[in-house]
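Narrative summary of target 7.
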Amino acid sequence: MLDERWVFYKDVKAEDQGGGVVRRVLAYSKDLMCVENSFEKGAVGALHHHPHTQITYVLSGKFEFEIDGVKKIVEAGDTMLKTNDVIHGCTCLEEGKLLDIFNPMREDFV
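Modeled conformation, tokenized:
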């Protein structure tokens, strides 16, 4: 789906990541990628880092995020910036969805 101009949600394969997390890779190019992650209550996005800049937008639910050692509670409408190689992760407090934007694309997701 690289460089697909139109990406319809009904056509996007849901990928079970285990532990109550489901990923959908939406539109992307080599320079930019949009990814939706659905979390069940209690699901954990383990602490990790990567060489991509990432912005996360909370579509729904409530999460405790840790970014560079700082923890905060976020909910629908909140955004977070994670610069290259910063350590980050989250725990889902109320079932929800996150929209992640990566620059450049996450080649490991496709």
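The radius of gyration is 13 Å.
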